[in-house]
Amino acid sequence: MASGFAAAGGYNFKGSMDTYSAMEGQKRESPAAERNKEPIAGVLVEHLRAATVTVTAKPAAQRPVILELASGSGQHAAHMAGKLPAFDIQPSDVTSELFGSIAAYAANVPNVLLPPLVLDATAPDWPESAAAAAAERRRAAGASPSAAPSAGTGASAGASGDSLNADAVLCINMCHISPLEATRGLLRGAGRALRPGGGLLFVYGPFTRDRHHTSESNAAFDASLRARCPDWGYRDLGDMADWAAEAGLERVEVREMPANNFMLVFRRP
């Protein structure tokens, strides 16, 4: 059965954070994140290494950036950064509640950009908010707001002016345990946040296919989510493709993943 209450960070109901296990210091652990981080990393490495020639065709001081929404505990951000050392990973979440955990996982991972950003996918201007935050960091570091940031400054490497220009956007286990508007907002915002000409959106989680569940356990889990909150629940792969197209994104791949999950990959042309 697909699961992931903890992985959607602050989109959960207050009280569901106890699905995280306390670790040393401020670290919190999501068992689901531990299980799925390696398969997810494999997909990212495959697609982003294939795009290396395009992605790295930038000034040397401007490293490519992956923006993660709904980062939760920070396990995924730290793991992806280790697997993709040529990229900077910018974590974010809808609240700052788990920022201490994100920072703890990233303590010895230099290509995770800290502090995390507060980003709400339901907000219509979240890409612009992210770009503004990156510009403010560059100002604080003594650089021009529109200048290409240097690696290690803690700035979102792809941002320039009021445009984020992320090389990739990553969202894991958010869509089914957040309001529908968060999913719609993720897709709409990614259409603006990604760099034109090949920026990639990766969306991982459980989905229905042609309005049918892929297993009985998934059907039961979906029903339990909708009973808990009517605006939660599995989204359909067909709807995701349609909403992505409305946002100007092209479908690249729908990959079946372990435990009845999927990885959806979209591209900004």
Automatic annotation (TrEMBL):
Residues 141-158 have a biased composition (Low complexity). It comes from the Eukaryota. Residues 130-158 are annotated as: Disordered. InterPro entries: DUF938 (IPR010342), SAM-dependent_MTases_sf (IPR029063). Gene3D superfamilies: Vaccinia Virus protein VP39 (3.40.50.150). Belongs to the UPF0585 family. This is Methyltransferase type 12 domain-containing protein. It comes from Gonium pectorale.
